[in-house]
Amino acid sequence: MDKIVIRGGQKLSGSVRISGAKNSALPILAAAMMADSPSILHNVPALKDIQTMMEVLGFLGVQCEKMEPNSVRVDPNGLHQFKAPYNLVRRMRASVSLLGPLLGKFKRAVVSMPGGCVIGPRPIDLHIKGLSALNAKIQVEHGYVVADGTSMRGSDVFLGGRFGSSVLATANVMMAACLTPGVTTLESAACEPEIVDLAQFLKKMGAQIEGEGTHVIRIEGQTSLKGAEHTVIPDRIEAGTYLIAGAMTGGRVEIQNVHYRHLFAVIDKLREAGAYIESRQDTITLRQEDPLKVVDVITLPYPGFPTDMQAQMMALMSITDGISVITEKIYPERFMHISELNRLGAKISLEGSSAVIVGRKKLSGAQVMASDLRASAALILAGLVAEGETQVHRVYHLDRGYERIEEKLRKLGADIERVPETQEEKVTVGEEL
Ligand code: EPU
What pLDDT, in 10s, does the model give residues 267-322? Predict the structure, then answer.
């Protein structure tokens, strides 16, 4: 396995192009199976999770063929399987988004229950509740969700949960409803940009959907859908990560291929922290000239501050003079990065689902271990400003969600490289199953 080695202290400056959104591309790839003809998808990021989704689709008989580095042709004509087995699903939680399309298209689905993960428990009760409301008969047997959709019909569905709306439950029920007779109305639906992007793709396929981007989505079921061509939206989390990299290093970073509005909550907090940010067309520029100021952050469903930016924001606050509080409202246990940031000299403590961060003048390079995708990004950000060398192990987490991060950061002037771990490190660091 590889590790990322960073020698901190470089001010970042220059431009970086943002890739397509992982969390849009994943359900869109799954949705393409519902058509009667092939779809062409552009701006699909080259990431491990995307590769996993294409492997699962391939197993079901949906042929995914890379045309250019970021374009994929998805041919659903060979779809013959409705069972997504454990050995494939366990590698990526987003495989649960196969449930809706399989039910819509096949009227049957057997999908392995995804496990919890290091960011906390990740139940699927809302997915089951939503699909059951469409009259799918669902049981959980031997670790699998077994769904019979032969008598599905449109219905009113309330999808709110303890932590607000659910992104992938909204995606699943919306996709299934596209091929379910009658009208379905989703109340308390997620309104994340990735849901809007999915709805846009489904509409190009011939689906009748209204209200995407609000909490009420209305879907009129069709008898069939056709393949479509679609360009995936830019990844707002990748974009936010590079903005924070610019702010932490006191640099000037231009990010290209982004939607400003998708980043509003993050930009608002960065401005409050003292960054100068301007946007033109699909470009955002950040300049950090003044000392950073502390800000408090609460993660919330969109358009609130995204949980997927919480760890990166914590890295920023770790080097900001003063005390800040970051409260996690989506995944109250998503704090595995605290201990590793502290290894780099940060001073962060946990009080329930809030982190209290006492900003330090300096961080110091160390060996650290990535626990999940966004935690990995936070450690890299901290490494960019830490004195001396930081080595981030278990970088496969990063490869799930950031396309060529070390190349992009190097282009901005960071001293960063990916190197294979030594034999000794392989033994001591170990592999997570
Ligand atoms: N929840 C339930 N029951 C459910 C589903 C969710 O209680 O049936 C809870 C979750 O436990 C959580 C909250 O509802 O507390 C929101 O979870 P949601 O369902 O929205 O998460 P998701 O759809 O499984 C997507 C992203 C995550 C991102 C969350 C929140 C994809 C593939 N994943 O997950 O992305 O954190 O929305 O925005 O779209 C990441 O990219 O690093 C990542 C984890």
Answer: 999 999 999 999 999 999 999 999 999 999 999 999 999 999 999 999 999 999 99
Cα–Cα distance measured from residue 29 to residue 32, given in angstroms and rounded to the nearest whole number: 5
Which tens digit of pLDDT belongs to each residue from 311-320? 999 999 999 9
Q: What number does the ligand 1 atom closest to the CA of 307 have?
A: 36
* Half-sphere CA count of 340, side-chain side, radius 13 A: 28
Cα separation, 306 vs 237, in Å, equals 8
Give per-residue pLDDT as tens, 364-377.
999 999 889 999 99
pTM above 0.85, yes or no: yes
Whether residue 398 contacts residue 377, with contact meaning beta carbons closer than 8 Å, is answered with yes
Q: Which atom of ligand 1 is nearest to the CA of 330?
A: 15
The structural architecture, per CATH, of the domain 2-19+234-432 is Alpha-beta prism (3.65)
Domain 22-231: what homologous superfamily? Answer: Enolpyruvate transferase domain (3.65.10.10)
Which residues are marked as active site? 117
Distance in Å, CA 168 to ligand 1 centroid: 7
The segment(s) of the chain belonging to CATH 3.65.10.10 are: 2-19+234-432, 22-231
- What are the φ and ψ backbone dihedral angles of 243, each rounded to 5 degrees? -65, -45
